[in-house]
Design brief:
228 residues; 34% strand; alpha+beta; 16% helix; 4-stranded mixed sheet; Glyas_Bleomycin-R_OHBP_Dase; 8-stranded mixed sheet; 2,3-Dihydroxybiphenyl 1,2-Dioxygenase, domain 1
Length: 228
């Protein structure tokens, strides 16, 4: 369906705490974070790692210091961070949970979503410091899905409103993504949505028994490293 191919924007590492997530990436790839901050709307915070090719890695966790809203109940956090099943998994350690694909102009993400609301979750306006963007986030905070299948392998979509991209301010540290692989027992359904979005070229997808998983292979100064 998509007339334009999407671009891989960043990888998402979910963590119980930011420190745990940073250690997970540092141990896997031998790099350190060089950016990040808070997302007041989602009550989360992140740490960013740079890579070659305009890609970056985002470690994200619930912000324990986020102020509680005095008015209406807060909206569910993004990337399923409020999901008890994901929280139970994070008790065993951080992991590569999700990926985000970029919609470049002149295509308008918000308009595309309004045209196909069954395919694309609502676009939420977000801000951190001098950065602003629109991100697709289901109303319940879950990962995007198609026909009930997502599990982190169907990407969120992002469109940056800021003139600069976060990766512009991050060091590359000699790290470059070699391959992004996905395994899912219903790979055909995931692939159908990726094809429709114009994102199938970004994920090497295969069918497999067991839990869905993302695996990223990187070239580093120490050789090939794997992030799971």
């Amino acid at each position: 369906m998509a007339a334009h191919s999407l671009t891989l924007d960043h990888l998402v590492i979910a963590a119980r705490t930011l420190d745990e997530g940073v250690r997970h990436v540092a141990d896997a790839l031998g790099i350190e974070p060089a950016g990040g901050g808070r997302h007041p709307l989602m009550r989360t915070h992140n740490a960013l790692f740079g890579a070659w090719g305009g890609l970056y890695l985002e470690v994200i966790a619930i912000d324990p210091d986020a102020p509680a809203d005095a008015g209406a109940p807060p909206r569910p956090r993004l990337f399923a961070l409020d999901d008890p099943a994901l929280q139970a998994r994070l008790a065993h350690g951080p992991f590569l949970a999700h990926w985000v694909a970029r919609v470049d102009r002149p295509r308008q993400l918000a308009l595309w979503q309004r045209q196909y609301p069954a395919r694309i979750p609502p676009v939420v306006a977000m801000r951190r410091g001098d950065l602003s963007w629109g991100l697709t986030v289901p109303d319940d905070g879950a990962f995007p899905a198609w026909q009930g299948v997502g599990d982190g392998l169907v990407p969120s979509l992002i469109q940056w409103d800021s003139p600069r991209h976060p990766s512009d301010a991050l060091p590359r540290d000699g790290v470059a993504l070699k391959a992004l692989k996905g395994i899912h027992p219903r790979a055909d359904t995931v692939r159908e949505q990726l094809d429709w979005l114009g994102a199938a070229h970004l994920l090497d997808l295969e069918a497999g028994d067991g839990a869905p998983a993302l695996v990223a292979e990187f070239d580093t100064p120490q050789g090939t490293r794997t992030l799971r």
